[in-house]
Structure formats: C-alpha cells, structure tokens
Write a structure and sequence with these properties.
Elements: H1 2-6, E1 14-15, E2 18-19, H2 24-31, H3 35-38, H4 42-62, H5 70-88, H6 101-122, H7 124-130, H8 141-153, H9 155-179, H10 186-224
Antiparallel strand pairs: 1-2
C-alpha cells in the first residue's frame, strides 16, 4: 500500500535511458504564450509587479543601496523557478520535481557552498564573529561555536527538506482522499470533492509560500557573509 502511495512521486517514465519526468521542470515554459512576454497584459503586469516587490524586499535584506537588479536577480529567478515547479505539480499527471531531494538539494547546496567560500575568503574575521553571538558569556563560547557551526552546516539540508516535505505532504493527502472515492456513497463523495477543492486551494498557497521561504532564506544566508 505504501509503495503504491509513494509511487506518485516516482520518476518512472523514461526514454533513451533517461527519466523524462524531469523534463517537466522546464517543459511548461514552452506552453506559455509568447504574447505574455512580448505584449503587456493583465497577467504580465501582475507578474512584473510581483517581481518588482520581491526585488525591493530582497534588496532590503541584502543591504544593497543601488537601484540595479543585479544583486537580487539570482534570488528572484530562484523564486520563479520553484514557484513554477510547485504550481505545475498541482496539475494531474504532471511530475513534481520539487518533491524530490535530488532537485531541492541541487538548488540549496551550491548556493550554500558558494556563500561559505565567498565569506571565508573575503570576510574571514566576520565569519568567525558569526560563530559567537554578541553578549555570549565566556564560559559558553566553546559550546556556542559548536552549535553555530552545526546549525550553519545543516542549512542546505533544512532548506531542501523543508521544501520537499511540504510538497510531499499535500500531494500524499490528496492521493489518500482520492483513493477512497470509489467506495463512497454519493453524499459522501460530494463532501470528498469539496474537501479536495479546499485542499487544492491550500496547496496552491503552500506552493507560493514555500517558494518565497526558500528564496528569502537564501537571501538571508547571502547577506550574512557580506
């Protein structure tokens, strides 16, 4: 039963000895009409407004005073990629790439490694200061160094697991509810459909929130090494 339940996350479809499910990570971009990017519309204006707000917020977190968007481009793009994959996974029979640690760790680990390398090479004194919070008693300093080191090392893992777990949880609940549909009477079936609609709305919100959390935390980790 459990293997069947988790099989919805299995990248089983393959061709040319390659898993084709992962193509869904970027395949949906092909189906977005070119008019959305080339000509102004209500949807493109809403998207541009969202990206502008994210740029301002990420610029504030990074402490960037310049008006150019170069410093925040990486994190806005990261938000867009995760949001696109989370939202695409809500459609039936579409593989959810962000429900796999293979993808989430691929996003989180290189970012964290690059931040650490940059910080320790360019701001070594600042990085050492980060290991001991201000106001720590001298007796507790060795323990705080160990705690801060461990919490720093597990950051890419927590980023990846948080996103993966949230994507898996909602999809599993939808799968569990839908599997009981054929055995239900008609009144209960309508209740089940209503519950699934509400859960789908909740999952849509979770898709946006988790993309935002991932991008914001990555921005904060970047600001700490500067």
């Amino acid at each position: 039963m459990m293997s069947n339940l988790f099989s919805v996350f299995d990248p089983a479809t393959s061709g040319f000895n390659l898993p084709l499910n992962w193509i869904s990570t970027f395949l949906g971009l092909i189906f977005i009409p070119a008019s959305m990017w080339l000509t102004p519309s209500r949807h493109s204006m809403m998207w541009d407004t969202l990206l502008a707000k994210l740029h301002k917020e990420f610029k504030l977190l990074l402490g960037v005073k310049k008006t150019n968007k170069g410093g925040t481009f990486l994190f806005v793009s990261l938000f867009s990629l995760i949001l696109f994959n989370n939202s695409l996974g809500l459609f039936p029979y579409i593989f959810t790439g962000t429900s796999h640690l293979t993808m989430t760790l691929t996003l989180a680990l290189p970012l964290w490694v690059s931040f650490m390398v940059f910080g320790w090479i360019n701001n070594m004194k600042h990085m050492f200061q980060h290991l001991v919070p201000q106001g720590t008693p001298a007796l507790l300093m060795p323990f705080m160094v160990c705690i801060e080191t461990v919490s720093n090392i597990i950051r890419p893992g927590t980023l990846a697991v948080r996103l993966t777990a949230n994507m898996i949880a909602g999809h599993l609940l939808l799968t569990l509810l839908s599997s009981n549909g054929p055995t239900m009477t008609q009144p209960l079936l309508w209740t089940l459909i209503l519950a699934q609609i509400l859960l789908l709305i909740l999952e849509s919100a979770v898709a946006v929130i988790q993309a935002y959390v991932f991008a914001v935390l990555s921005t904060l980790y970047s600001s700490e090494v500067n």
